[in-house]
């Protein structure tokens, strides 16, 4: 049986064959591998990355670091077809959904590599303009950002084993910090193969990129105030990480991207059959079902004006009905199984709780057999749409995220004020989608509720020809959100480097200050 390996301190490491967690094919339930990090010395892993990798990166300019990222991107792209097949088998994603992850990884690495080239030969980042501090410019002040003298520990979710590791690593490496990446065990086969391809390419200096497959053990005990932790996953796990005694005592920066009850709103100006109407129907159906609804940006709450309810439900359910659940190897299938048995159990439990306050209007909320799969096998769950019995929806709809192809339609009065209030009931989201052609409506909504989401996707007739959908986390825009969403932020172009940099204030002669920032 395959043993998933870790890569640390410059070597590949495999635990004993009878150790660890079994990884299963979500379609057939066949055991694919075991994963365990037993035997890794976490103190050595951290020290090697911090000393070897960190020293090497800090000697490089942004442009040179960018070249490393472009090399990583090329290494992943070179085995793209292999990664797609591995993703379909180990993650249960269709080929199209697998592309979303694999191409997102190589694309984001390349994007940050190009940013590095734009930054040029400097190794530090300017932070605003300089200013005179004394009677003349002889005494000059300026802020800059320098790389933290530590290691970036990245703990990623199961749903994006390639893109999740790549988008965090891209920002850290460009900022000048080495990376220890820890993927979710259930889908780590994809991450392992990505790292293997990068290591084999020889593009990175020793210690810049390490991989832990399995438990992190006592890793956090070896971190200090120069290190960084970034986590994507459940709010409960995020709280445990944020509350770790050593991370607190050492003031280690912790960035959390957690559960999010993302919402989509239809403005009351949008007419049935219009371009904006069709855009919402098409995009929200995709955001509910892409990757079997296992996305942090998936739409969990759909708000429709009372006057548009019947027409919207008819259009939306017709679109959702085109989804075929089954084996990713079957050409008729466009939605695969859930990733694990635990995910299936969680979704079934969550739907039962939603059914206490909402009616199922599409699907049945039960496990199903998959097209092209053996009957009774696989973690299959068809798209399930509910409708809240009460206008605006009961509390559980705004409190419980069911991490699968599940969403609840809620009626509201159509006003921007009500929409903003309903959005806030999610207690903080990664992304909120608004579909309206009325700038006044959209602006009123944003003024009232702009602080409750990290990103607003504003769908309209004008942008429809280039609309990518709210689920695409573009590297140039921030990804993160307040409150329930974790309060963190990733991506956003060069803003992503803030987490891995120390902002410093320089006060001295203008020449000394300016030649440091701009050598």
Structure description:
This protein is of the alpha/beta class. It has 15 helices and 22 strands. It has a seven-stranded mixed beta sheet, sandwiched between helices. The protein has a five-stranded parallel beta sheet with strand order 10-9-8-11-12, sandwiched between helices. Helix content is 36%, strand content 21%. α5 (163-175) links the parallel β8 and β9 (179-182). The longest helix has 25 residues, at 95-119. The protein folds into two domains: 41-258 and 489-517, Aldehyde Dehydrogenase, Chain A, domain 1, CATH 3.40.605; 262-476, 3-Layer(aba) Sandwich (Aldehyde Dehydrogenase, Chain A, domain 2), CATH 3.40.309.10.
Provide a quick synopsis of the model.
With 519 residues, the protein is an alpha/beta fold.
The helical percent reads 25-40%
**The first-level CATH class name of the largest domain:** Alpha Beta
Helical stretch tally: 15
Radius of gyration: 24 Å
Instruction: Quickly give the structural class.
Output: alpha/beta
Tell me about the biggest sheet?
7 strands, mixed
Average of pLDDT = 95
Distance separating the two termini: 54 Å
CATH superfamily of the largest domain: Aldehyde Dehydrogenase, Chain A, domain 1
- In CATH, the topology of the largest domain is named Aldehyde Dehydrogenase, Chain A, domain 1
Low-confidence stretches: none
What general form does the structure show?
globular
Number of domains: 2
How do the strands line up in the largest sheet? 15-16-17-14-13-18-19
CATH architecture of the largest domain: 3-Layer(aba) Sandwich
- Overall strand count: 22
Q: What share of the residues does DSSP label as strand, in percent? A: 15-25%
